[in-house]
What does this fold into?
Amino acid sequence: MKKPARIEERPSRAPVAAVDAPRPDRAAIAPRPRTCLVVDDSRVIRMVVRRILEAMGLAVVDAADGHSALSACRDAMPDLVVLDWNMPVMDGGTFLAELRAAPAGAAVPVIVCSSDSDAARISAALAAGANEYVMKPFDADILHGKLAQLGIFR
It folds into this structure.
């Protein structure tokens, strides 16, 4: 038997109708975790970044080069990309141009992670569409700070 709606008074707010109904299981309504695509030709770097991001609650997919990363994006566009700039097969700059040309890829935040400290290379990455640039080596605090700057974590 359905219970009738009742009016509850809330201080400094208009009355709100309330219905006594069972609440769905939290797991059933929990949002999916944000996905991050980690692109680096170093298996060790991919593994380290994966562990950092998974500890932050992100789901991680990885790729060893830009070509494999584009294929992963075609399968499912990630919510974030952590991208090495210098890779074989397809470098980070070429991948970034292809990602930005895709309709769904234009808004995906990209953090370039590279050991290259040349100011011209950093400027080129940012001009190509990267949102942030991180120097290798980096740690969880640095990566978390960049994600916070992008609004992914507070």
In short: The chain has a mean pLDDT of 83. Helices lie at 26-29, 43-55, 66-75, 92-101, 119-127, 140-149.
